[in-house]
Amino acid sequence: MYAGDGEEEEDRTTQYRRDRPARGGRTKSYTRCVSLPNDDLQSFRSWLQWMCVDQSSFWRAALSWIVFLTLSVAVPLVSHFVLLTDSDKEAQRRRASYDAVVQLSLSSVAALSFICLSTFFRRYGHRRFLSLDKLCRESEAVRSGYTAQLNRSFKLLSMFVAPCFVIETGYKVWWYIAGARRIPFLGNPYVSDVVACAFELCSWLYRTAIFFLVCLLFRLICFLQILRLQDFALVFEDSDVAFILAEHLRIRRQLRVISHRFRFFIVSCLVLVTLSQLASLLHTTRSDVVVDLLNAGELTICSLVLVAGILLCLRSAAKITHKAQAITSHAAKWHAFATIDSCDEGSNRIHPVDNLDESSDYEELGDDDDLEDTKILQPRANIMSFQKRQALVTYLENNRAGITVFGFMVDRAWLHMIFGVELSLVLWLLGKTVGISRNMTSLICH
Predict the structure, then answer these.
(1) Which segments does the entry list as coiled coil (predicted)?
(2) Are 238 and 380 in contact (CB under 8 A)?
(3) Alpha-carbon gap, residue 157 to 378, rounded angstroms
(4) Could you please report the per-residue DSSP string of 175-229?
């Protein structure tokens, strides 16, 4: 738990109605934010230690850097420049070009992820980075939902990494069986191939896991903000304007903090993935290149990993931005129904919600638009004046929250812009590499 032992938290909406002024300060039982060996992050730290990225002490930090330099730098360099060999020099040159793109792409995103992760943990610590120190202010539903998501974060990591690793293992084993060789550095060529294959698979697994780990941590933190926004939608029922403004400012502040922490990672990752995909496209569309499974198979797996990681980050950022901006429409709908109820107060009319069955239609929408649904609200009458409600809606319309990257809001329009830029680069590169040869042109003319 994040609260003190022996104290039960009341439902947040009930607490709003009971003691609204008393929420200005913190309860003493919710002020614990010091990391303890047996606290709620014990499982999380154990997974970090198994992945050799825990830098909570000097020796663990040293071990983490040694493993990173070995698996992300030394093994790919030795595999590419020392052990790669083939009897056919032309085949070796083609294989080396493909291998260079794969090794450079994976090592680059792994180095970016490891440096960002080390900076986050060293500067903020585990609890502050995961926003656990701010969780004491949230409701029980937010805390329980975030705790469950935190506990299954490494399960999600295994769901992303395990299928890719199985495919990579099968391809690598087939690659060696199909005739690809390494320099026999242990004397026996078969033993050398087995050792080289094991080191290459460990290096691939480490680099892929580090990259997906940072992407899933970003998704985890965005998931907390989604829970906060869903909980924030409840305060419109019977809270005053000052409290609603304070809560919205707190959410905006947290979203700015997340944007500031991850903007370098998102932009750098987007640039690296774009360059990697353009290099892959360049290698596979040249006129003199030979594209087969032996050479381009690992390049395909690498491309799938990189694209899946960056799409995971962009989808999480766009989703939290969409949820944050949906608060404005939710507030406008609440203001409209509150105004209607105040104007029709005292009348004996039947509310439309009494004769309207929307349950079947609403189930088809899913939970993506839970703040923008078309259900009719029944706000409490006379909870605040029309001028206050109008001022609140005007404030929300002009202070939209969301994930930003150097001032640009990461929403669906931003994703469409990225897609347009990427498509333009792909078409430009295809125009430079793919064309009709002169012989084909003369054949068509004749």
Answers:
(1) none
(2) yes
(3) 42
(4) HHHTT-EE--TTSSHHHHHHHHHHHHHHHHHHHHHHHHHHHHHHHHHHHHHHHHH
> Around Cβ 187, how many Cβ atoms within 10 Å?
7
Rounded distance, CA 333 to CA 413, Å?
24
Collapsing DSSP states into helix, strand and coil, what is residue 278? Answer: helix
**How far is Cα 116 from Cα 108, in angstroms, rounded to an integer?**
12
Cβ neighbours for 396, distance < 8 A, ≥ 6 positions apart: 248, 327, 328, 331
Read off the tokens for 423: 């498509």
CA of residue 344 relative to chain centroid, distance: 47
H-run or E-run covering 416: helix 412-433
Residue 161, helix vs strand vs coil: helix
Half-sphere exposure of 270 (CA within 13 A, CB side): 19
The crossing angle, in degrees rounded to 10, of helices 58-69 and 189-232 is 120
Task: Give the C-alpha separation, 125 to 143, whole Å.
Answer: 19
Of 267, 277, 271, 272, residue with least CA distance to 410: 267
- The residues, any chain, with a CB within 8 Å of residue 216's CB and separated by 6 or more, are 153, 156, 157, 160, 312
Residue 337, phi-psi category: left (phi > 0), alpha (psi -120 to 50), beta (remainder)? alpha
Tens of pLDDT along the chain (446 residues)? 444 433 333 344 344 333 333 333 333 333 334 444 455 677 788 888 888 888 888 888 899 999 999 999 998 888 877 766 655 566 566 677 777 888 899 999 999 999 999 999 888 888 888 888 778 778 888 888 888 888 888 889 999 999 999 998 988 888 878 766 666 667 777 788 888 888 999 999 999 999 999 999 999 999 988 888 888 887 776 667 788 888 888 888 988 999 999 999 999 999 999 999 888 888 787 766 666 677 777 888 888 999 999 999 999 999 888 888 888 888 888 878 777 766 655 444 444 444 444 444 444 444 555 555 545 455 554 556 778 888 888 888 888 888 888 888 888 888 888 888 888 888 888 877 765 444 444 444 44
- Which secondary-structure segment (H or E) carries 408? strand 408-409
Q: Whole-prediction pTM value?
A: 0.80
Q: 178 φ, ψ to 5°?
A: -70, -5
In whole angstroms, how far apart are CA 366 and each of 30, 91, 156, 267, 361?
34, 52, 22, 31, 10
